[in-house]
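FIELD: query
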Amino acid sequence: MNELALRGNNPHSEVIIIQALLHGYPAKLLLDSGASGNFIKESFINQIQNNSQEKLDIMTIDEKNIKLADGSIIISNHFIPKMNTEIHGRNVKNSFIVLNILNNKFD
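FIELD: result
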């Protein structure tokens, strides 16, 4: 994915950038129709865990290799099932694979 797509400035991009609430905390989400799943930064999860009375259900799973858009591979073994996600006033439950290293502006 190129930098224009990440900034949301590419009219031909297959991604959508939206503001949402994850577990009640403001987040910037990247919706990518080509992605193999939903991913969330470990640092964002830590922020929620440190500031919330209600803890997230973080599961340890078998290691998963995740291939990023730049071709690099990172490994995850944490998963959050059914996280509260509010988008434009509508609540849904989404599951996320937790990634410990992401160098982008999304949560």
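FIELD: remark
The mean pLDDT is 81.
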